Amino acid sequence: DAGITQSPRHKVTETGTPVTLRCHQTENHRYMYWYRQDPGHGLRLIHYSYGVKDTDKGEVSDGYSVSRSKTEDFLLTLESATSSQTSVYFCAISNLGGANTEAFFGQGTRLTVV
Amino acid sequence: AQTVTQSQPEMSVQEAETVTLSCTYDTSENNYYLFWYKQPPSRQMILVIRQEAYKQQNATENRFSVNFQKAAKSFSLKISDSQLGDTAMYFCAFMLYNNNDMRFGAGTRLTVKP
Description:
Helix content of chain A: under 10%
Oligomer: heterodimer
Number of helices of chain B: 0
Order of helices and strands of chain A: EEEEEEEEEEE
Shape of chain B: globular
Distance between the termini of chain A: 33 Å
Order of helices and strands of chain B: EEEEEEEEEEEE
Strand content of chain B: over 45%
Strand content of chain A: over 45%
């Protein structure tokens, strides 16, 4: 398995509180992603990073911010959690190009906002 | 932005039979990758098969094969000799070659019946 760890694995938080999810990789891959998975929507890209301090918005970025201060860590922050952000969050990593390009995924974080 | 469409939310197949899952995508780019990922109840994301857009030959991995029609922007997955362990969610995914921006479809839930 690719060395990618998400923490925490489960979290319950109250509406209006800030929440930070962490993704840590040991593969030295350039690209890191945050997705959310909801029934009927598949995986939707929140933000992704193409290098240290280089990030870009995905299709559902409102209400989320990210930071990548070093290659191995990619943090996702919900500034003020809302019930609509209850979801399963996946981190993924990939490297640049080549015949064996693929994305490797963490185990997911189930976040419940009450 | 690229979009991926899976029009079959649910499918079922008898054990040992063949099933085809559909996927279409939209992009103005010429160089990209296409993937099928499997997500069993464990929630783990597992790569099933990968196709590079510049390759005309359809990818094959044991019982899994694709029908890649670049002009039609279609990328279907055929599972032959279906097994009970193939029961899972299947996601079609698109990745740009130059920046690894990766998007997913909404998924197809496949049930293999004994």
